[in-house]
Amino acid sequence: MRKVAEYTYQVQPLDVDFSDRIRLTQLLGYLLHTAGRNAMENGFGMEALHEQGKTWVASRLAMEVAYYPKAHEIFRIETWIEDYGRVFTTRNFKMTGGDGSHMGAGTSIWCMMDLEARKALDLKGADYSAFVTGIPSLIEKPHRLPALSGEAVSRHRVKYSDLDFNRHTNSMKYIEWMADLFPLSLFQQRNITRLDINYVNEALYGEVVEIYRHQPCDEACQFEMRRGADIICRAGMQFDGPFNLMADK
Amino acid sequence: MRKVAEYTYQVQPLDVDFSDRIRLTQLLGYLLHTAGRNAMENGFGMEALHEQGKTWVASRLAMEVAYYPKAHEIFRIETWIEDYGRVFTTRNFKMTGGDGSHMGAGTSIWCMMDLEARKALDLKGADYSAFVTGIPSLIEKPHRLPALSGEAVSRHRVKYSDLDFNRHTNSMKYIEWMADLFPLSLFQQRNITRLDINYVNEALYGEVVEIYRHQPCDEACQFEMRRGADIICRAGMQFDGPFNLMADK
Fold first, then answer.
1. Are residues A11 and A134 in the same domain?
2. Do A7 and A116 lie in a common domain?
3. Is some CB atom of chain B closer than 8 A to the CB atom of A119?
């Protein structure tokens, strides 16, 4: 048992975007993978939970990225559990480049869900105190994002390829849908330096999710996803400089 | 230098679909990754080629799958170059489960493209003869698929997340778009046992790709993707039994 565990990864060719740097969603995927791997090693991974009819669900995430590694680059992710309460547990991450340089950090808040009832479970039922470090996140906690109004800018019907092993939309898909609303020229000029997500409801197969985006969208951009009147998630993206969405269509 | 190389993988939680088994596109991704990894080890990987303004492009692929492993399962992929000619080289694959069981096989035909001119290059310019094994594919070569007529059943505008390091649509995205046309109930009842793809043209950012599907679509299903009058790719999927697309909406 390691309270703070470190894992080494290599950026795979299929992880990168047109600029040969790791995509935001893939990097976030490595964070989630690291969370799952560490939980598995400590005996409370997805596989063990599924056998008990339970699953982990990400509730809020934040990630700051100082450097996006290229294909074949090595990087490391350290992870530790900060604390846990009745419903939520906080897991933090530190990302380091192959040369030891600061790459970024993340923090995530999870709840445990009953797969049948689709309801949050009491975490005090299991004793995770031996795994708690009390070590705080290296970045600000996930921001609580505001409600948006206006017209939907895009919509998606949840498809087979969107589903994960929890039988709901893979949490990274929402971020992919949001990132895809930007013109390619933005990713040629700017990097996303911070991402915040609040997951509220799960979206299931066949459901239609509408995306709302706060206008104007300058160095930061806020999104909300809804299914009818229900909020699915809210997200915020910060860039490393201003851009003009209207000029860069 | 190994003429026949074997690599070991583990199915990651994010690789699987709602049924906890590896998705077809992810398994094909592991084949492409294996091809790239072996090419890199032999000195003609994507990184080396990109520095010369060249890239590998998959032209035709076929994969047969006897068993789809679950999350955390170990599997192995063996790969070897069968032969090469002026424009095309054939690379084959054998997939084996962690317990040594037969999992499937693949075969792929590649050409080398000039990144600037977007044209195929003469492979005889480089000498790959030391890497040629002459060992044939374990499955039938990729089928040459027929042209389809009728109405498009779906369309996609190529987005940021669809692009790969070659700056064109990731070859697996087409398969994802095709698989997503089936109802979820199909994947609850049936497995894809063979996939054939013929890539004809690349689709670039912002272009709209239309999908045509041959009707009726019973134990096998054929697809064509077009951009206006240009063929992008054709594909065929075979299932392990009949299904009725109309009944299982």
1. yes
2. yes
3. no
Q: Which range of residues forms the domain containing residue A59?
A: 1-142
Q: What SS3 class is residue B197?
A: strand
What CATH number is attached to the domain comprising B167? 3.10.129.10
The answer to whether B160 contacts A167, with C-beta atoms less than 8 Å apart, is: no
Q: Are residues A206 and A90 in the same domain?
A: no
Q: What is the ipTM of this complex?
A: 0.90
Residues A53-112 have pLDDT tens digits of 998 989 999 999 999 999 989 999 999 999 999 999 999 999 999 999 999 999 999 999
Number of domains in chain B: 2
Given the structure tokens 């598995």, which residue do they identify? A40
Boundary (domain end) residue, out of A77, A112, A142: A142
| A179 and A95 within one domain | no
In whole angstroms, how far apart are CA A67 and each of A21, A134, A193? 9, 27, 9
pLDDT in tens, A190-235: 999 999 999 999 999 999 999 999 877 788 999 999 999 999 999 9
Do B15 and B129 belong together in one domain?
yes
Question: How far is A8 from A146, CA to CA, in rounded Å?
Answer: 36
Question: CA nearest B176 in A: which residue?
Answer: A161
Q: In this complex, do B13 and A46 lie within 8 Å of one another by their Cβ atoms?
A: yes
pLDDT at B249 over 60: no
For helices A24-41 and A171-179, the axis angle rounded to 10 degrees is 170
> Which residue from B17, B167, B176 is facing A163, i.e. has the nearest CB?
B17
Q: Which residues from B are below 8 Å from A47, CB to CB?
A: 71-72
Regarding whether B25 and B44 lie in a shared domain, the answer is yes
Q: What's the Cα-to-Cα distance from B26 to each of B30, B69, B173, rounded to whole Å?
A: 6, 11, 11
**Nearest residue in chain A measured CA to CA from B11:** A33
Please tell me whether residues A115 and A176 are part of one structural domain: no
| Predicted confidence (pLDDT) at residue A150 exceeds the cutoff of 90 | no
- Digit-coded pLDDT (tens) for A156-172: 999 999 999 888 999 99
Q: Is B138 helix (H, G, I), strand (E, B) or coil?
A: coil
